[in-house]
Amino acid sequence: MASVKFDGVSKTFQKDILAVADFNLDVEDGEFLVLVGPSGCGKSTTLRILAGLEEPTTGHVFIGETDVTDAKPQDRDIAMVFQNYALYPHMSVYDNISFSLRMKKMPRNEIERYVEEAASILGINDYIDRKPRELSGGQRQRVALGRAIVRHPAVFLFDEPLSNLDAKLRVQMRNELSRLHTRLAATMIYVTHDQAEAMTLGDRIVVLRDGNIQQVATPLELYDYPANSFVAGFIGSPAMNFLPVILENGKLAVGDTAIPAPEWDGVPSGEYIFGVRPEDIHHDDESDLAGEVEVIETLGNEKIVYMSFADRQFAARCGPRVDASPEHPFRFTIDMQRGHLFDENGLRVRTDR
After folding, report:
1. How does DSSP classify residue 89?
2. What pLDDT is attached to residue 352?
3. Which is nearest to 7 in space by CA: 76, 60, 70, 51?
């Protein structure tokens, strides 16, 4: 396995379309790194630059100690798993998995051993003689993974590999990918737009927006200490609630409502955006804070209450037995210690000094 380094990588397409801007990142040997962000943020372009499928406009890419910026894809010792599986329909599972080994003219007994090992890891031994059309989506994705595993690459690359699967299969395949990473101790770089995939899979997560890195951190650090309002709103479902506020005299003024603020040492008075996650809003019939209920999502183990508060939509994650209805105001308290302040540029203001 190997480490990966992006050194000042950028990519500009025709008509001065900037896809990736000054991308600097070190990926440790054996790390599972996830690139996440909305469509068009540059995550797939970054992966394709690493794979050698796109040339960077500026910068260098290293795999291990080797500068592979100008190397051909086949010379980079990487294996890539795509969204559309990219299996040969006329070949059996065995032939699909072994194709790259046969192209290298490896001895037959070694090919059989590698394929058997990969099939055993992925639990597809029973499908080894089938054609792709005879497999389910999850089984096809396992075959695509098997084709990558047998190559024993320095780096595994995944480009939204679970997007074509239904919700239940996505959860199952996420678990299998996590187990695979643990078993192989391999360097893996994974691209997705799904923040749930990013949070459950990544050792570290890179959040991208318009080709720029917004934050690189562990899943919990991203969730608890977002660098800016974009990261705060992108990570978490339902998204973080935001309110324009004025901090003055130890209180947050939200329209005509004043909410006592914690003792935030060193934070000057002024206008901010206050952010709080839905799970930090608690139902309380005695509270003076109240919103007009608009939508209630009953999910069995919890309820998500969407309400109008201070002319903004506010979401609260509640227990399944909480009594909420559009006929009555939803009264609540806010765990202010879990709240965040963002300045006029969207940057999080440190309140934990």
Report:
1. T
2. 63
3. 60
Gap between the Cα atoms of 139 and 123, Å rounded: 9
Q: Which strands, in side-by-side order, build the sheet including 17-27?
A: 17-27, 4-13, 58-63, 66-67
Which residues make Cβ contacts (< 8 Å) with residue 202, sequence separation at least 6? Answer: 32, 33, 34, 190, 218, 219
Residue 310 identity: A
CB 186 within 8 A of CB 33: no
CA 218 to chain centre: 11
Per residue in 16-36, pLDDT (tens digit) is: 889 999 999 999 999 999 999
Res. 83 pLDDT band, cuts 50 70 90: confident
Average pLDDT of 167-193?
A: 89
Q: Which two tokens stand for residue 132?
A: 């792709």
* Other C-beta atoms lying within 10 Å of the C-beta of residue 18: 15
Return d(Cα 145, Cα 190) in angstroms, integer: 13
DSSP code string of 206-250: EEEETTEEEEEE-HHHHHHS-SBHHHHHHSSSSPPEEEEEEEETT
Cα 252 to Cα 242, 247, 273, 298: the distances in Å are 13, 5, 10, 31
- Is 255 in contact with 296 (CB distance < 8 Å)? no
Share of the chain above pLDDT 70, in %: 99
Query: 212 is written with which tokens?
Result: 């720029």
Exposure class string for 240-262: b at 16+ Cβ within 10 A, else e:
bbbbebebeeeebbbeeebbebe
What pLDDT score was predicted for residue 155? 95
CA distances from 6 to 24, 27, 156, 343 (A): 5, 9, 16, 30
**What's the pLDDT tens digit per position in 146-170?**
888 888 899 999 999 888 778 888 8
CA distance 257 to 259: 7
Beta strands 187-192 and 290-298: pairing type?
A: unpaired
Report the C-alpha gap between 66 and 144 in whole angstroms: 27
Q: What is the pTM of this model?
A: 0.90
Question: Is the backbone of residue 300 left (phi > 0), alpha (psi -120 to 50) or beta?
Answer: left
